[in-house]
Amino acid sequence: MAERRRRARTGVVAALVAVVLALTGGGAAWAWWQATAEAVAPPAVAAGTVDVQVAGLGNELVGPGGTVPLPALSLTGAFPGSGDSEIVTVRNVSSRAVSVTATMTRTGTLTTAFTTIATFGGTDTGPACSGGSGAATTIAAGGTATLCLAVGLAATAPSGTQGQSGGVTTTLAATLPGTSWTDQGTITSGTVAAGTVPTTTLTCGTLGVLSVAFTWTEVPDATSYVLRYGSNGSQSVTVTGTSRTITSLVQVSGTASVVTQRAFGQVTWTSVPSNTRSYTVAAVSLCG
After folding, report:
1. What's the DSSP call for residue 199?
2. How far apart are CA 3 and CA 202, in angstroms?
3. Across the strands, what pairs with 223?
4. What is the pLDDT of residue 48?
5. 101 burial class (0-12, 13-18, 19+ CB within 10 angstroms)?
6. What pLDDT digit, counting tens, does each position of 18-55 carry?
7. I want to staple 153 with a disulfide (CB 3.0 to 4.6 A). Which of 76, 78, 175, 250 is the partner?
8. Are 70 and 203 in contact (CB under 8 A)?
9. In the predicted model, what is the mean pLDDT of the chain?
């Protein structure tokens, strides 16, 4: 019995050896594979930037916010229909393209009689901006855009606009599309002010029987003068020259003053009244 078990184990071992020899072709074979590769680190994580600048004005609004002066954009002694315009270069040093909007605001005592224009790509015609794509544009990363800025006094500005003064502030607001990131800079103009019609000076002229003459100084560019006379200046007459004689068949007394007028096409501006003179028209007239 023990002999049969021994022969059975011997048979199993022989079978296993036969299988191994069949798989290896009767001999042992070994292989070793090796490969090398350079490990690449992931790219660094960096935040984007939004920075819109104004080239050529000294302080160029580098970094967030800031204010830069543009003294060349100014308007002094302005009359209806006058204006001034200037070109500035807006530069985008952001990491991506940005949307930029220019908004102009009047400061000081300037009313809506003063007009403003901001247009990208516009042409400086001297008193105004021509053409352009409007107050908003998109500037590529590293790119620039020209912006025409203008301030003017409307041709229909009323006489009450005289003496108003202030300035114009242009706000450049840049936005990185798809984000809440922004940059905002400010451009300030030079002085903007309306002119005034000068006042004349009234004097007494020749005194006559039942007449009094008035004369006044000539005002450059005046279109006409309005002489106010009578009781408390209740009467008036428009004169193109610089003198007027008041006559009366009866004795009258009153006060006189003169207002200068200057026409500007659609509107006429008037000065403040001159000094006053009291007078009496009589057989012996008086004025002083």
Report:
1. P
2. 157
3. none
4. 65
5. middle
6. 333 343 444 444 333 344 445 454 443 344 689 999 98
7. 78
8. no
9. 87
Do you know the residue count of the chain? 288
Q: Look at the alpha carbons of 118, 121, 122, 123 in this order and tell me if their dihedral is positive or negative.
A: positive
Both tokens of residue 252?
Answer: 């009258």
In percent, the amount of the chain with pLDDT more than 70 equals 83
The rounded distance, in Å, linking the Cα atoms of 116 and 85 is: 9
pLDDT at position 220, please? 97
Contacts of 166 (CB under 8 A, 6+ apart): 106, 107, 108, 109, 110, 192, 193
- In the block, tokens 């451009």 appear at 187
Residue among 152, 153, 148 at smallest CA distance from 135 = 148
Q: Determine contact, residues 163/195, Cβ cutoff 8 Å.
A: no
